[in-house]
Design goal:
Blueprint (H helix, E strand, L loop, with lengths): L1 E3 L7 E4 L12 H13 L8 E5 L4 H12 L3 E3 L2 E6 L2 E10 L4 E3 L1 H4 L6 H23 L5 H4 L4 E5 L7 H11 L5 E10 H8 L4 E8 L18 H14 L1
Parallel strand pairs: 2-10, 3-4, 3-8, 8-9, 9-10
Antiparallel strand pairs: 1-2, 5-6, 6-7
Helix pairs in contact: 1-2
C-alpha cells in the first residue's frame, strides 16, 4: 500500500509497508523502480516534471525511475564539504551553482579555523564544477533547463540532509514551478525537516533511530565511481 502519511507533514508521501524496515531494496535500480511507483500517482499534479539526479548514488535511482515514468532527467551535481582528516564525514555541501550550506552546529564543535573552512569550500566548488563538465558535457546550463519545470531532486537516500538542502536552494535560484525531493529511503527526522523546505517529499522507506545509514535499506550496496556513473549515463543515452 502506498499512502500519504497523515501523522506527519502532509507533504510527505511514503510506503506504509516499508516503514522502519531495513534491506528492502536489492539495489539502487530496484529502489528507483519502487520510487517510480510512488511518483506515478502524482503525475496529474505535475505539468512539467523533471528528475534531477544527484551523483553519484542518485543517478541509477533516477535512471530507473525515469525509465518507468518516461520523465526527462538531468544531472545536478552537489558535493559535501569533507573534513580534512576524514573524507567520509562532512560539515556542509556545495551545489552546482556555487550555493553553500554549512552545518553550523557541527562546525561550532570542530577544531577548524575559518581559513580551513574557506579552503574546504573552495576545493569542493572545484570538484562540483569538474563533475558538471564530466557528467553534463555540453548540455545547456541547469539555470536554463530548470525554469518552469516541476523539479524533483533524486538521491539514493537522506541521512543528515545537508547535501540535499544545498541542492534545493540551488534549484530554487533557477525559477522552477515547484521543488520536491524523491528518495528511496530516509531518516524520519531529516525527511520531516526537509518537508518544510520543499513542495513535497517522496520517501519509500522512512526509518527512525540513530545512527541512521542509507546503506541499511539496500541488500547490495557499494559506492559508485564517477566512471561507473558515466557508463550508466552513456548506456541510458544509447538506449533512447
Amino acid at each position: 500500500m502506498v499512502e500519504e502519511n497523515p501523522t506527519r507533514a502532509p507533504r510527505i508521501i511514503d510506503c506504509a509497508e516499508l516503514r522502519e524496515r531495513i534491506a528492502v531494496f536489492r539495489g539502487r535500480e530496484e529502489a528507483g523502480r519502487v520510487l517510480a511507483g510512488l511518483l506515478a500517482r502524482e503525475q496529474r499534479h505535475l505539468s512539467r516534471p523533471l528528475l534531477l539526479a544527484i551523483p553519484s548514488g542518485g543517478v541509477p535511482v533516477a535512471l530507473a525511475a525515469a525509465g518507468v515514468l518516461g520523465w526527462p532527467l538531468d544531472i545536478a551535481p552537489v558535493s559535501k564539504i569533507t573534513l580534512p582528516w576524514n573524507s567520509e564525514a562532512g560539515y556542509g555541501a556545495v551545489a552546482f551553482d556555487g550555493t553553500v550550506r554549512l552545518n553550523e552546529p557541527l562546525l561550532s564543535r570542530l577544531p577548524l579555523t575559518r581559513a580551513m573552512v574557506e579552503e574546504g569550500i573552495a576545493q569542493t566548488r572545484q570538484k562540483v564544477q569538474r563533475r558538471l563538465r564530466a557528467l553534463r558535457g555540453d548540455r545547456p546550463p541547469l539555470e536554463r533547463v530548470i525554469p518552469g519545470h516541476d523539479a524533483i531532486l533524486v538521491d539514493d537516500g537522506l541521512a543528515s540532509g545537508f547535501t540535499m538542502l544545498a541542492a534545493v536552494e540551488a534549484v530554487r535560484h533557477c525559477d522552477p514551478a515547484s521543488v520536491s525531493i524523491a528518495v528511496p529511503t530516509g531518516s524520519r527526522e531529516t525527511v520531516e525537516r526537509l518537508a518544510g523546505e520543499v513542495d513535497r517529499v517522496w520517501c519509500c522507506n522512512i526509518r527512525s533511530g540513530y545512527p541512521f545509514a542509507v546503506a541499511d535499506a539496500y541488500r547490495n550496496w557499494y559506492d559508485l565511481t564517477e566512471e561507473e556513473v558515466l557508463a550508466l549515463l552513456e548506456t541510458s543515452a544509447g538506449s533512447t
